[in-house]
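for the writeup, i need someone to sanity check this before i put it in the appendix. the sequnce is what the collaborator sent (i think, or maybe the updated version? ugh). structure was predicted straight from it, no edits. if anything looks off just tell me and ill rerun, i have time this weekend
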Amino acid sequence: MIVHQLSVFLENRSGRLTQVLETLGQENIKITALSVADTSEFGILRMIVSEPEKAKKLLKEKSFTVNLTEVLSIITPNEAKYYAKALKILSDLEISIEYTYAFSVGEKSVIILRTSNAELAKKTLQEHAIELLKASDLYMI
């Protein structure tokens, strides 16, 4: 399903990631998934957290630049062919993948996708019997 992901702009300075995590940790916010994409000057921290609105507010209060973005969360067996199948379904409809990251839980992979059209991607994946995770289920992993 469509899930709210926290995206945080971080300067490439020692301790910035720690500050984000300490801020969230002080409020017992659970992190389900985390990814960092970086350049030499800055990084984008992407997280699936248990309380995205609260986390956004807390980080803004600490002067972080933060947004909530809509991503899809699917769950498949943790073999590459299943990840490829989901991506092919979307690419056949010319739905672009802006970025993706994944993690395994037992024999399953949870895949986070940011697409050019979340609603169409959601509908299409459901029509092809690809299992989507609701936000509430994802936050509890």
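The chain is about 35% helix and 40% strand. The mean pLDDT is 94.
thx in advance!!
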